[in-house]
Amino acid sequence: MSKLAVLDDLLELYFQLNYHKNAQILQRLQDVQAWQKTRMQRTHAQHFAEKQNTLMAEYFLNRLYGGPDFDALAEQIARLTKYAHKAEKLIPDNAIKTGTSGVALAILAVQLDEQVAIQLLKDYHPNEALTDEMMRQAYLQLDQGEERLKQLSMLDELGKSLDKYMRSFVVYTAFKMCKGAAAKYRFDVMYDFMQDGFLAMKPLKSAEKFVKEFTAVERQIVAKVHAGDLNPFQ
C-alpha cells in the first residue's frame, strides 16, 4: 500500500466539510478561526515572543490551525496522491510521515472549528461579533473536550517527529532538491507548507519542547472550560 494512501482518507473527510457548500458556515468558520488565533496570541504571548519561537508560533497559527491557503494545499495533495509511486521516490519516508501528521492536524482543527461555527449559527445571529462567552458556551454545548485533547496529543507527537526525523541534513537536502520539481508540477503550496515547517524549526533547540509548553497551557484551558470556569481563556 502507498505511504500516501492515508492522505486520501484525510482529504475525503476534508472535502465533505459543510463549509465548502455553505457560505454562511464558511463566514462563521473564518470568524471562529480569527478568534482562535487572537486568543492563542494572547494566551501564549510570552512564549511566542521569545526570539527562537517566533517562526514556529507563526507556523502554528497560520498553518496548523487553519490557514487561508489550506484549500489550495488540499487540492495539490489530492493531485500528488494520484502520482504516489513517483512522489515516494522523491520524498523521504520520514518527511512523508511527518508531513501527513501535519496535514491531519490542520484538517482536525478545521473540522472542530466548523462544528463550533455551526453551533454558533444555531445559537446566535450570524453577524454577531464573537465573544469569549459565546465561544465558552459553544464548547460546552458540543462537549469537544476529548477531541480537543486528542488534537493536543497529536500535536505532541508531531513535535517529537519534527525533532527525530526532520533535523537530518540528508532529509533537508533531499527536500530542497524537490523544489524545482514542485514548481514545475505546480505543487508549490504544498512545498511551502513543508518548507515553512523546516524554517520554523531552525532557531529551536527542540521542537518537542516548544510544543509541550504550548499544549500544557492548552490542556489547562480545555479542563477549565469543562469544569465550568466562567473565565477559562483569561
Structure report:
The structure is a single chain. Helix 1 (5-15) packs parallel to helix 7 (93-123), helix 4 runs antiparallel to helix 12 and helix 7 (93-123) packs across helix 8. Helix content is 77%, strand content 0%. The termini are far apart. It is mostly helical and 234 residues long. The protein is globular and about 50 Å long. It has one domain. The chain is built from 13 helices and no strands.
Brief characterization of the structure:
This protein has 234 residues and is mainly α. Helix content is 77%, strand content 0%. It has one domain (5-226).
Assembly annotation? single chain
Strand percentage, roughly?
under 5%
Helical segment tally?
13
DSSP strand tally: 0
Overall 3D geometry? globular
Domain tally: 1
Determine the fraction of residues in helical runs and give it as a percent range. over 70%
